[in-house]
TrEMBL record:
Residues 133-248 form the GFO/IDH/MocA-like oxidoreductase domain. The keyword Oxidoreductase applies. Keywords: Oxidoreductase. Belongs to the Gfo/Idh/MocA family. It comes from Arcticibacterium luteifluviistationis. It comes from the Bacteria. SUPFAM superfamilies: Glyceraldehyde-3-phosphate dehydrogenase-like, C-terminal domain (SSF55347), NAD(P)-binding Rossmann-fold domains (SSF51735). GO terms for molecular function: nucleotide binding; oxidoreductase activity. Residues 5-121 form the Gfo/Idh/MocA-like oxidoreductase N-terminal domain. This is Gfo/Idh/MocA family oxidoreductase. Pfam families: GFO_IDH_MocA, GFO_IDH_MocA_C3.
Length: 329
């Protein structure tokens, strides 16, 4: 039988709730500790999710015996600090996206993981979903011919709570880092790092980017036309166009349950990916598998790709004029 992987969670907000619920569906894995800035919230969350330990500070989580991995689900601005806290204690880390606020922070995280020989991975859950794997398989089969254009958008209107992380510049708020990361990630996964980056952005009432459009070109080969917005409900689809046909990843493309392959000639094919979880179980299984094999990073979403992604995000932000206090440190 596989070794049971004992998980802890730091920061128990909205996404931690879904993660904990999906963790409960993964075989040979258990939530053993939750850490919050509030002991009452930790006890309440821990009780609901059957966690063995609940702590009222992040540092206390390291008192947990046999803790294998920690999932970091705090606002973007504290990802680097929380990750380094765990790595310095030699505990494996799965850290939410964006991995950190900028390239400098991500480099520090990666260097520390290498120095401590400790597992580190960005929680880019889309990479591990069966739908994403199928898209890559179709592209590899050359069913699309040569890819010429990738189009993806992500847009919705979040509730207006200026003090919360989503719209608050102090916490790295704004559409681009929160949801624009998904089109950027898809372009990097499929087309690689662009040779040309163009971007432009509008600002919302709290000063964070509301709508950002970004265009990437890859030599003379292909182009990605991408956007994100907190100002409107958009299709939130991705389409990859090739010389022989196209693939549509249906709404919301980043965790889609349906993709359609539409060849220029012949019948379209629909692929369905039904699931009973939110979909975070796949990234959890990847971490568990890596830890059982004694690996310090994932081959599916390696640290080199996380570094390229943050470089892409930084460069796009620079073009679009999206600036945070953390950029100046
Ligand atoms: N993969 C995905 O699908 C997905 C989806 C949503 C969000 N995310 C990412 O996950 C991270 C958390 O997002 P979320 O929506 O869960 O946020 P959230 O609901 O605001 O929760 C964040 C948690 O972080 C902790 N925290 C630590 N310092 C904080 C501070 N100064 N202000 C507020 N909270 C602080 C809080 O937990 P305690 O009070 O317990 O310490 C809070 O509950 C973000 O980086 C986001 O990009 C990923």
């Amino acid at each position: 039988m596989s070794k049971t992987i004992n998980w802890g969670i730091i920061g128990i907000g909205k996404i931690a709730e879904k993660f904990a619920s999906d963790l409960a569906t993964v075989e040979n894995a258990k939530l053993v500790a939750v850490a919050s800035r509030s002991i009452d919230r930790a006890k309440e969350f821990g009780g609901r999710h059957d966690s063995t330990f609940a702590y009222g500070s992040y540092e206390e989580i390291f008192n947990t015996p046999d803790l294998d991995a920690i999932y970091i689900a705090t606002p973007h601005t504290s990802h680097a600090e929380c990750t380094k806290l765990c790595l310095n204690k030699g505990v494996a880390v799965l850290c939410e996206k964006p991995f950190a606020m900028n390239e400098q922070e991500v480099k520090e995280m990666i260097h520390l993981a290498e120095e401590k020989q400790t597992f580190l991975m960005e929680a880019l859950w889309t990479r591990f979903l069966p739908s994403t794997k199928k898209v890559l398989e179709i592209i590899d089969s050359k069913a699309l011919g040569d890819i010429k254009l990738l189009q993806a958008d992500f847009g919705f209107i979040p509730p207006f709570f200026p003090e919360r992380r989503v719209l608050n510049p102090e916490y790295g708020g704004g559409a681009f880092l929160d949801i624009g990361i998904y089109p950027a990630f898809l372009s990097l996964l499929i087309l690689g790092y662009p040779s040309t980056i163009l971007a432009t952005s509008t600002k919302g009432p709290t000063g964070v980017d509301e709508t950002t459009a970004f265009l990437y070109q890859y030599g003379n080969n292909n182009i990605a036309k991408l956007s994100c917005t907190f100002g409107a409900e958009t299709n939130t689809e991705a389409t990859i166009f090739g010389t022989e046909g196209r693939i549509v990843m249906k709404k919301r493309f980043h965790d889609t349950k349906e993709i359609e392959l539409i060849p220029n000639e012949g019948e379209p094919q629909v692929f369905n990916f039904p699931r009973e979880t939110f979909g975070y179980n796949h990234e959890i299984e990847e971490v568990n598998d890596c830890l059982r094999k004694g690996k310090t990073s994932s081959d599916l979403w390696p640290l080199s790709q996380s570094l390229k992604l943050i470089q892409l995000l930084d460069k796009t932000r620079e073009e679009a004029g999206i600036v945070y206090k953390t950029d100046k440190s």
